[in-house]
Amino acid sequence: MTETLDLHDRLAQSLRSARKARGLSLDAVAKLSGVSRSMVSQIERAESSPTVATLWNLTQALQLDFAGLMEGRTRPGIEVTRAGAAPVIQRGGVRIRILSPAEAVGENEVYELDFAPGAALVSDPHGPGCREHLTVIEGRLRLVSGDEAEALGPGDVARYPADRPHQIAAETGAARAILIVQNS
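Now predict its structure.
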């Protein structure tokens, strides 16, 4: 009995970790796998014993090696997040698409920023030593970090302290950029 419980717990942990590592919600896994959201949730909580067919569908959706499921091994090779699957946040006229995997939160985070004309992304200080790296793809942006300010155009890259109040704003028209947040 203890061995069965341990097996369910390891299976639950492997599936939950794989889902979170890919930044997928329970709903997303349900859609990708054809397994109901409630069943995915029950399996992740070790409250249900899935059939082999259900496990197969989940491992395919999560890109896990079926044979190595209990060790939590993922398939070797390229990990892809499709354009429509990346999480998106709307904030102050800025569309923020999260490009980094969920496990990168608090370390190195990558975002695609789409600014509506005149939109600004205003941020409170992040943790001590945090730095941001901003690359302008299209349009013009004005960057303010503490008391310093810079105007940036396409191809410009700015690296600056983000452990103080900072702001990125579209100067004229729409703009696009890639932002990397590097926490220390």
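The chain has two domains: 2-71, 87-182.
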